[in-house]
Design a protein that fits this description.
By secondary structure, the chain is α/β, with parallel strands linked by helices. 42% of the residues lie in helices and 22% in strands. A 7-stranded parallel β-sheet has the order 3-2-1-4-5-6-15, sandwiched between helices. It contains 14 helices and 16 strands. It has 2 domains: 176 residues, NAD(P)-binding Rossmann-like Domain (Rossmann fold, 3-Layer(aba) Sandwich); 187 residues, Dihydrodipicolinate Reductase, domain 2, CATH 3.30.360. Strand 5, helix 5 and strand 6 form a beta-alpha-beta unit. The longest helix has 18 residues. Helix 4 packs parallel to helix 5 and helix 6 packs across helix 14.
Length: 377
C-alpha cells in the first residue's frame, strides 16, 4: 500500500527516474513501484537528482492487477512509464482504477489508447477519476500546438508534425522502452482522422515535411498514427487530423521505414511468438543500453500544427528541448493538479483537455522546456 500521493510505476526506467526528478523538484512525496526493488535503489542512486532531499518509498510488485492494485492503494495518482503499453498498459490501467487512483502514462500507441477508451473510459468517469494516456513529449507538444491553432475561429482541419533530433545526432539516443514501442507499431493499425472517422494509413505512407525551421525537407512517418487523431475523434471542433513524426537525421527514419516494409513482406504473417523474437532482436541491436541523460545543447524539437478552415489558416509551433526530461515535467504538472483535485475532465481525456493546454505550456515555458509561436497564414 502506498504511503504517498503519487506512484511512479516503472521506477527503474529512464522516464520513471526523470519523473521522480521533477517530483523531488516540486517537493512532492512519492512511491516508486517496480518489479525489482534492488534495481530501483541502484538506479535511483545513480540517476535521480537531489535524491538526498526526497521523501519516498520503494515497493516491489509483480505486473499483475492484484499486486499492482495493492501497491497503488492509498495513492491519488499513478504515473505509468512501463511500455510497450500495448503489451503491459491495460493491466496497470485496471489496477489504478481498482485502487481508486487517477492514471497517467507516456504512450503514443493508438491501439492501446483506443482499448483504454473503450474498456475503461466510462468506468473511470463513473469513479470520478481521470485516465490520460500520452502525457509526454510525444504527443502533448503537438497537441498544445493543435490547441493553439484551434483558438483561431473557423479552424476545423489539423495537420501536425513532430520533428526532433534522432538517435544518431542527438547525443543521448532513444530509450529501450521507446524503441520497443516504436517497433511494436509494425503490428498495429495506424490511423488518421478524416471527416470525424479514424481511417487507416496506407502501409507505405510517408511524408516529406518542408518546414521553415529547416533548410531541407524532413522525412517523416505516421509513427503509429500518433495519439492526436484519437483525442480529436470526438471533438466537435475538428473534422480531420493527420499527424506524423520525423527525425532531423533522415537516414534513421528511412531505416525505420525500410524495416516496416520488410515486416510487411516477411514477418507480418508469422506466429506471434516468432514476431516477438524478431522484435526483440531489432530492439537489442538498435538500443542495447539505457542512454545517458539528455543535454539541452543537442536535444531539440519542433512541433507544428497547421490549422485550416474554409477561409482561415494558422500555423502554431512549439519549439522544445530535452524530450524525456520534458515528459517527466508534464507528468508532474498533471500530478500537481490531480493531487489538488483540479481537473476539467474525468474518464478518458488528453492532458490538454483535462488541465488546459495553456497551463501545460506555461509549466513548460517557465522551466525553459518550450516556446510557442502562432502565425496567421
Amino acid at each position: 500500500m502506498a504511503k504517498y500521493p503519487v506512484v511512479v510505476y516503472g521506477a527503474s526506467g529512464y522516464t520513471g527516474m526523470l519523473t521522480m526528478d521533477w517530483l523531488i523538484d516540486q517537493n512532492i512525496p512519492f512511491t516508486a513501484v517496480a518489479r525489482n526493488a534492488g534495481r530501483v535503489h541502484e538506479m535511483m542512486a545513480q540517476r535521480v537528482v537531489r535524491l538526498e532531499s526526497a521523501t519516498y518509498e520503494v515497493i516491489e510488485a509483480e505486473h499483475t492487477v492484484e499486486a499492482l492494485t495493492e501497491a497503488f492503494r492509498g495513492a491519488k495518482v499513478v504515473c505509468n512509464t512501463v511500455g510497450p503499453f500495448v503489451n503491459f498498459g491495460l493491466t496497470t490501467v485496471e489496477a489504478a482504477l481498482k485502487a481508486g487512483c487517477h492514471h497517467l502514462d507516456t504512450t503514443g500507441e493508438q491501439g492501446y489508447m483506443r482499448e483504454v477508451r473503450e474498456k475503461f473510459g466510462k468506468l473511470y468517469a463513473q469513479a470520478g477519476l481521470l485516465v490520460s494516456p500520452s502525457l509526454s513529449y510525444m504527443y502533448t507538444y503537438a497537441e498544445i500546438a493543435a490547441e493553439l491553432a484551434l483558438e483561431t475561429p473557423g479552424i476545423d482541419a489539423l495537420e501536425t508534425s513532430t520533428l526532433c533530433r534522432g538517435p544518431r545526432d542527438a547525443g543521448s539516443g532513444v530509450t529501450v522502452g521507446s524503441t520497443a514501442s516504436i517497433f511494436e507499431l509494425y503490428r498495429s493499425e495506424q490511423c488518421y482522422l478524416w471527416e470525424k472517422k479514424l481511417v487507416p494509413h496506407a502501409i507505405d505512407t510517408s511524408f516529406n515535411i518542408a518546414s521553415p525551421d529547416f533548410l531541407q525537407p524532413v522525412f517523416a512517418l505516421p509513427w503509429g498514427g500518433t495519439s492526436l487523431p484519437v483525442y480529436f475523434e470526438n471533438d466537435p471542433r475538428v473534422r480531420s487530423c493527420v499527424s506524423c513524426v520525423g527525425f532531423y537525421d533522415n537516414n534513421v527514419m528511412k531505416m525505420v521505414h525500410a524495416l516496416g516494409q520488410k515486416w510487411e513482406a516477411e514477418y507480418k504473417h508469422l506466429p506471434k511468438e516468432q514476431q516477438d523474437a524478431v522484435l526483440k532482436q531489432i530492439v537489442e541491436s538498435t538500443t542495447p543500453t539505457m542512454p545517458p541523460r539528455e543535454r539541452t545543447t543537442t536535444v531539440r524539437m519542433v512541433d507544428t500544427a497547421i490549422g485550416r478552415g474554409q477561409l482561415s489558416a494558422v500555423r502554431a509551433t512549439v519549439h522544445g528541448t530535452t524530450a524525456y526530461i520534458a515528459t517527466g515535467a508534464l507528468q508532474v504538472a498533471a500530478a500537481i493538479k490531480l493531487i489538488d483535485g483540479e481537473t476539467n475532465k474525468v474518464g478518458f481525456a488528453s492532458g490538454s483537455k483535462a488541465f488546459g493546454h495553456r497551463y501545460l505550456l506555461g509549466f513548460l515555458e517557465e522551466r525553459g522546456l518550450a516556446r510557442a509561436t502562432v502565425t496567421p497564414l
